[in-house]
Amino acid sequence: MKFEVPRIFYILLIGLIFISGFVYFKWDVFLDLANNLINFKDSHPSQMISFDKFLEYLENGEVKKVDLYENAEIVVFDTVNAIGDKLQHTGVKIPIRNSSLILKLREYQIDFTAHPPVVFDSAWSIVSVLLIPVLFIVIYQLFFSEGSNYDFFGNLRKARAKIQLDADTGVSFDDVAGIDEAKQEFEEFVSFLKMPQLFTAVGANPPKGVIIVGPPGTGKTLLAKAIAGEAGVPFISISGSEFVEMFVGIGASRVRDLFETAERNSPCILFIDEIDAIGRQRGTGVGGTNDEREQTLNQILTEMDGFKPTSGIIVIAATNRADVLDSALLRPGRFDRQITVYLPNIYGRIEILKVHSRNKNIDSKTSLKFIAQRTAGFSGADLANILNEAAILTARANLETITIKQIYTAIERIVAGLEGVLLNDSRNKRLVAYHEVGHALAGTLLKNHDDVQKVTLIPRGRAQGLTWFTPDEQPLMTRGQLSSRLIGTLGGRAAEKVIFGEMEITSGASNDFFNVNSLARQMVTRFGMSSLTPMAMDLPQPTIFFGRRLQTRPDCFLDIADQIDMQIIEIVEDGFEKACTILERNRLLLDQLATLLTQVETIDGKEFEQFVGNYTGLPKQTKLQPLVLAD
């Protein structure tokens, strides 16, 4: 039977050692303190007299003994009468400290004793010595004792992983929506964790690890938790940044501790979030060969190679920067698979909204399909945030149910910013109205352009007005669609020029020009939609931090670069001329829509298209033919 000595025994032993040493080495301190206390009491007599009276006592022979305190500044003496009786304990304060008093005492043959100043340095030394063992015990309990919450050396090297040994993550595949393809891939991992004999019977080794790649908020962590919840195994999670410390070797030690914890709780899911924090390309020249990140990455590679096929541990890592990961980390035998989680399409957004609306009191008339149509490009986290913001707005308005109005307001608030104050100046309001109607009208009259969703003069963020379009979620974009978007973006500046002239154009189109320049450059250099050779002339620029070689020459020759700039200028100028032509041909319609927008301040997309259709006599399906840019 193993006998364990109680921890209190060691604490008492340490305290006894310090107290014994104090008594042995500091006994004289007690004596000095006692003497100082006595001297302090004697140096404060009950009666004080003047210095002249003291000299008179001295000349009459009534002073027999004198005690000097505080560097001869205070004199304490006992007066006696002619028959030698002691009268009183008297003191006097010497006005000027000099040696004349000592000479007088010697002249009259008076016995005097000089006492040192009364200080309490010895008292502080006693207190400090007594506090040493107490302080040592406290430090030992907080930082050095095993099992302490502040175990300094233990927590420094141990991985601070969140372990759920009861295998109850609270998440299942029913809670994960919008990423059905990824869920199907992970059903295989659930089958292995539940019934590993099915794989081992045919000689199949289960994958050791899988990396989930996707934009932020697409549900990578939620998917890993759902695997553990479906399989009923412990879920061990840690972030990649927790391995990186300023001390060399701490990250590798934490990796060893983390994998030891996983082996003790196998079968389990070991989840490493943001693995790009430690899994970047090695040999970058940053930090030398003893870089802490490289040592941590090497330890991860070693630990994954040491896994047995039947260990029952599946390592799942998540990142949104798979392009910077080291190639040794992605090879088969370590992270065998790489699953990409994309942003959800409209059907995925509907399913995600159903999941996040379970605990929300949403009005029955509110259609989740309409919400999904207005949230193209939103991730699962964005959709959850929209419903939460809508619930906050509903509670602020003292309403019981969430309506479509609060949801649309939440979408606009998240995308464009907080709602500002409406313009009171009629001139500026008219300028903004023509600018926004120019965007909407040009986009409505183009066949390949996205549908208008809303036109408003209500400022949000830094924008004084906004025109919302419903983006087309097609995986591929044609040249006509890109050209229509470019013309619609330039419609705001075109309306200002057509209505107010060159000298009255405003700075409101500055952000439009940035978007147009980016779109035109991609059409020329990446999509091959110009008269130049159909090839990509704008490759991504690698950097030294990713472990790849530096770019030694430009992607194209200088004369080609000049031709690219000329093509971009030609595309933008041609698009601007076409936008001006569309608005000039529909000048009356532009004026009527701008006047209407100034009055009502917000026009819905369907109302806008109906107004345009009534004026032009053309239904939606017979819009103007796409304006293809000339080569």
Put the structure in a nutshell.
This protein is α/β, with parallel strands linked by helices and 631 residues long. The chain is built from 23 helices and 14 strands.
Any key phrases for this structure?
single chain, 631 residues, alpha/beta, Signal recognition particle alu RNA binding heterodimer, srp9/1, Rossmann fold, Helicase, Ruva Protein, domain 3, 4 domains, 6-stranded mixed sheet, 5-stranded mixed sheet, 23 helices, 48% helix, disordered N terminus, disordered C terminus
What does this protein look like?
With 631 residues, the protein is α/β, with parallel strands linked by helices. The chain is 48% helix and 12% strand. Helix 10 runs parallel beside helix 11, helix 17 runs antiparallel to helix 18 and helix 17 crosses helix 22. The longest helix is centred in the last third of the chain and has 28 residues. 29% of the residues are buried.
